[in-house]
Amino acid sequence: MTLHRALSLAAVSIALAIAPAAASAQDATNHVAANDAAVGVAADDGIATDGRAELALGAALHHDAEARRLRWHCVTERDLELCTQADARYRLAAAGYHAYLHRYPNHPQAYELRYTLADALYASRDYDGAAREYAMVRESNAGRTHLVDSARRVVESLNRVCDELEANHQLEVRATPPEPVGTPPTVTPAVMPDALRRLFDARERYLARVDAQADREQLRESYDLRDAQILYAYGDWSHAKVRLTRIFDASCSGPNANERGRVAWIDLRNMAVALGQVEEAERLSQVLRDRACTFGATAEELARPTGISCPVGGQYRHATATFGEAQQATGAEQTRLYERAASLFVRNVNECPSDPQAPIALEQAAIALQRVNRFDSAGHIYQRILDENSARRGEDPEEQARLDRIVSNAYFHRAYCASHGFDDDGAIANYRVLAESARFASNTEPSMVERRENALINMANILERRQQYTEAARYWQRVARTSHYSVTRLNAAYRVAEMSFNQRNWANTVRDMRAFMSRYRGTTEAGELSVQASWRIVEARRALGNARALRAALQSVVDTFARSGQPTGSAAAEYAAQARFELADAFLRAPRGQNLDIRPNTAPPSLAPDE
Q1: Which site in 26, 125, 397, 507 is 20 to 30 Å from 103, CA atoms measured?
Q2: Lowest mean pLDDT among 179-188, 296-305, 348-357, 368-377
Q3: Which residues pair with 186 in a beta bridge?
């Protein structure tokens, strides 16, 4: 790193304390271009060697580092507001990276910077922008260091895009294929929505660009099957049949046998039946018998006869041992063992459904599938637990407590799996049962209390993401009242006020933010949130067009920051710096003699005196 660059990066914290960062990628681009022109940086060679552009990049790096710090504290301290602050920092970092790459696309570090830009966009929840940047890294000829990760991240980003579109009822993914018509029956392919097509193509590019050896997370097989199922659901049966046949052939039996083979065989047979191809359906059944497909179970395990009385004990011995082996394994072997353990647990329960340990065995099967990211299959098993046990009542308090734990855990994880499968309605329905049911509300066992609280938080987050702010506020209010963690209560109380802001209900925003500030006035942990709340009042006053009230709100930001004890360089300091700037600007623009009630000498501690 050059001396100039080191000095520029050292100056970033000072610069951030006295001036707001670029609000958008275009603002940052203009800022970089103007500063480069001022210091004489050559732009035609596309490589930055000097000038204020280095400072702009340094600012992006600073915001990125601060965002990572905030995100870590959010997770470890269960502080939801820190995650919101981290998102804002990531957006600022992304704007800086974007501006720099726009100005200097051929910089020697452009490959690394673009991947970092994509990470910042993903972390700030701009999944569409992240997908575009990750795709550029994936297809880049400048390096291969991030090929695998960027190819995977394109898929994950577009998964999130589809999730958001479904939540907003802008995307509906087919669950069943078009009905064949005519004689003989034929199926006409349905048009795949653009967002789903992008996701499909991203998985295809992963399969094309990432070979089996580089596929560290063992995603190729699941991507392959998922795209085959999309082809099937949208009526492209000629291509679906080729792919499903290949998957079935590879996964029927032998060392690579797994549940994907069973799924492929079922879809192949469904196509044959729907098309009236009786001979093809019979041929598939014969192949299943001739090849003795195990789909992952061993010969010893399959040899156990069915229809016998349940053994006294030890029926889960093989499944439990396989689960233990999976915990110690890695990579593809771990995936295979977890899937095998799940199959064994389910098989054991099917043979002895009345066994008292059956619900726990099913729970273990679902956990095994979750650990290999098969959330849809795990969700079905959790639903089976609910179907078979939610109405049961224990013969004594001990058995009832055990059933309550199993059923409440099933509701929570059924919701969790539904959320991973982009089924927000299903997630909310199951979280709501756990949060609202009198059966669980009276249980004071610590794990039950925490599970119900987490259900409230997850439900509120989903509703907020879906822009159902009124209902989200209702659940945040419950968290603020009932959480056993003071930090969680604090952040939930702020989220209640934030829902009014998100709805652009400016009068309620002023009321609710003031209520929050009043409730937590003098609370050390609320310092940064109180400053942010005061800034939300500024935004509301600005929208309402009341100049006098706006000036008072700006002064309140400065005063609140001065009391908050927040450090220089924090997000709170940036709000205060912007408020002081606007107050000073209003003072200079006002007609001489007009009293604006501005106190320019009341400097918050973030602003160092002029040298």
Answers
A1: 125
A2: 296-305
A3: 181
* pTM of the shown model: 0.49
User: For the chain, what is the domain count?
Assistant: 5
> Using one digit for the tens of pLDDT, what is the confidence trace for 10-46?
333 333 332 333 334 444 444 434 443 433 333 334 4
Q: How high is the pLDDT of residue 7?
A: 30
Return mean pLDDT, the chain.
Answer: 81
Query: What is the DSSP code string of 167-225?
Result: HTTS----SSPPPPBTTTTB-PPPPPPHHHHHHHHHHHHHHHHS-TTT-TT--HHHHHH
Q: Cα separation of 534 and 586, whole Å?
A: 19
Q: Which domain holds residue 323?
A: 297-368
Residues 288 and 313 in one domain: no
Say whether both 492 and 544 belong to one domain: no
Under a CB-based contact definition with an 8 Å cutoff, are residues 580 and 572 in contact?
no
Two structure tokens written together for 350 = 């099917």
Last residue of a domain, one of 368, 396, 426: 368
Which helix (H) or strand (E) is 38 found in, with range? helix 25-39
Neighbours of 449 (CB within 10 A): 16
C-alpha pair distances (Å), 345 with each of 64, 258, 349, 381, 390: 45, 15, 6, 11, 20
Say if residue 347 is in the same domain as residue 448.
no
pLDDT at 138 over 90: yes
Name the token pair of 577.
């710096």
CA–CA distance from 395 to each of 358, 398, 401, 403, 437 (Å)?
17, 8, 10, 11, 21
Q: Is the pLDDT of residue 344 over 80?
A: yes
Evaluate whether residue 148 is within a structural domain.
Answer: no
Give a yes or no: residue 594 inside a domain: yes
Residue 31 and residue 22 in contact, taking contact as beta carbons nearer than 8 Å: yes
Q: Where is 263: in which H helix or E strand?
A: helix 259-274
- Residues 99, 198, single domain; the answer is no
Q: Mark which of 263, 295, 327 sits at the end of a domain.
A: 295
In three state form, how does the secondary structure of 378-431 look? HHHHHHHHHHHHCCCCCCCHHHHHHHHHHHHHHHHHHHHHHHHCCCHHHHHHHH
Residues 481 and 580 in one domain: no
- Say which residues have a Cβ less than 8 Å from residue 44's Cβ, sequence separation at least 6: none
From the list 463, 546, 489, the residue with the least C-alpha distance to 168 is 463
263 and 363 co-located in one domain: no
Residue 579, in any domain of the structure: yes
Cα 288 to chain center, whole Å? 39
pLDDT at 421: 77
The verdict on residue 165 lying in a domain is no
